[in-house]
Amino acid sequence: MRRFRTAGLAVLGAALFASVAASPAQASPGETRTVCANSMTPDGWVDVNWGVNASCGGGSLSPNIKMIKQVDGLPVGSQVNACATTLPPKGWIKLQTYYTSSCQAFVNPSFTPNAWLLQRAS
């Protein structure tokens, strides 16, 4: 009985980790994914939110997950609010810089601008 419970927990944990650490390879423009914060944000994606979730480990209140958004393929003129933790993708320009609590990527946040309003220029 104990083996079945252990195996069941292992399968459940693997499924949860796979959903959080899913590869953004086959994404549609505008699609969002949640990944562990130690994952690199792929080209053509931007960080749009930071948070804390036990599925990515850690036992502190430090942000350890991030939501990323696929911006490649969005039409010219599209606007996206993005965290300033990644550079704007090629073809995107910054229209505005501001502060938002959803882009706090560190434990000791300040009210320094940490987000951008981006627009697709080309």
UniProtKB/TrEMBL annotation:
Asked if the keyword Signal belongs to this entry, the reply reads yes
Q: Which UniProt keywords apply?
A: Signal
Q: Which top-level group of life is the source organism from?
A: Bacteria
Annotated signal sequence is: 1-27
Name of the molecule in the record: Secreted protein
Organism for this UniProt entry: Streptomyces olivoverticillatus
